[in-house]
């Protein structure tokens, strides 16, 4: 069964399974590495917990590393109520919102070629363009904060005290809909020129892998508190 036939049989469409390309999401180079597949985008986002948020402040570009969480087709980004970009985002009613560009990148390997020109990286990345708005609804804010905690360690929000009223008042979250989105992936070995293949230089890929060490309990942790399953699973 073809992809189109599968979509029809399951009641979905290509539009449901992929983001529509736009002028801002179609790369000018290496277009074959770009993808608009929702499942791929979600997988890349869900494996990360730090994003880079870009916006313009006082006429100059600013890029901030920060935590984020995904709930369906929406991203939530954490910040302080004193943060200028979060205040500028507004709630979409009294203020138009803040134009932003959000990126996530995973480094998978160092690609070493025989020529300096063809050195590269294997990576998976997502770029999201859109207008961010501050979350003001209390229930949505709680959902967003749980998502931010669970993005770092899945299941952690259920194993910690929820934010109280004072903490909620000191916390700001902006939301960004996944609408104008693209993924870009590079994999495989070096692309050396044919005339360089006989050169006496090593060529190949050095894999880059992340990992977690054993959890270290806090000095003031009650010894009777056992390591929760969601941490042991790491």
Structure description:
The chain is of the alpha+beta class. It has one domain (20-188): Roll (Pnp Oxidase, Chain A). The protein is 22% helix and 33% strand. It is built from seven helices and nine strands, in the order H-H-E-H-E-E-E-H-E-E-H-H-E-E-E-H. The protein has helices at residues 3-10, 14-17, 38-46, 84-89, 138-152, 165-169, 229-232, and strands at residues 34-35, 50-57, 60-71, 74-80, 98-112, 120-134, 171-177, 180-186, 204-207. A six-stranded antiparallel β-barrel has the order 2-3-4-7-6-5. A hairpin with a 2-residue loop joins strand 3 and strand 4 (74-80). 19% of the residues are buried. Residues 1-12 have low confidence and may be disordered.
Biggest sheet, open or closed, and with what strands and sense? 6 strands, antiparallel, barrel
Q: Give the total of beta strands.
A: 9
**Radius of gyration over all CA atoms, rounded:** 21 Å
In spatial order, strands of the major sheet run 2-3-4-7-6-5
CATH topology (level 3) name: Pnp Oxidase, Chain A
Ranges with pLDDT <50 over ≥5 residues? 1-12
The total of helices stands at: 7
CATH C-level class is Mainly Beta
What is the rounded distance between the termini?
A: 38 Å
The helicity comes to 10-25%
Given helix and strand content, the structural type is alpha+beta
Mean pLDDT, all residues:
87
Strand content: 25-35%
Can you tell me the CATH superfamily?
Answer: Electron Transport, Fmn-binding Protein, Chain A
Listing every helix as H and every strand as E from the N terminus to the C terminus, the arrangement reads HHEHEEEHEEHHEEEH
- Give the name of the CATH architecture: Roll
Categorize the overall geometry: globular
Number of domains: 1
């Amino acid at each position: 069964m073809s992809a189109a036939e599968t979509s029809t049989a399951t009641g979905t469409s290509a539009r449901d399974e992929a983001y529509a390309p736009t002028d801002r999401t179609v790369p000018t180079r290496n277009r074959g590495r770009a993808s608009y597949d929702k499942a791929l985008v979600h997988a890349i986002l869900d494996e990360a917990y730090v994003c880079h948020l870009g916006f313009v402040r006082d006429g100059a570009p600013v890029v901030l590393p920060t935590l984020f969480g995904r709930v369906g087709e929406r991203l939530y980004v954490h910040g302080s109520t004193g943060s200028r970009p979060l205040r500028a985002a507004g709630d979409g009613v009294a203020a138009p919102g803040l134009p932003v560009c959000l990126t996530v990148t995973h480094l998978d390997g160092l690609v070493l070629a025989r020529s300096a020109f063809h050195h590269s990286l294997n990576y998976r990345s997502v770029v999201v363009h859109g207008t961010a708005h501050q979350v003001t609804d209390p229930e949505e804010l709680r959902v967003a904060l749980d998502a931010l905690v669970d993005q770092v360690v899945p299941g952690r929000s259920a194993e910690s005290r929820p934010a109280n009223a004072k903490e909620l008042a000191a916390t700001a979250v902006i939301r960004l809909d996944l609408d104008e989105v693209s993924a870009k992936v590079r994999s495989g070995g070096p692309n050396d020129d044919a005339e360089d293949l006989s050169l006496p230089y090593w060529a190949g890929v050095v894999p880059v892998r992340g990992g977690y060490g054993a959890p270290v309990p806090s000095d003031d942790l009650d010894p009777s508190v056992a390591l929760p399953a969601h941490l042991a699973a790491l």
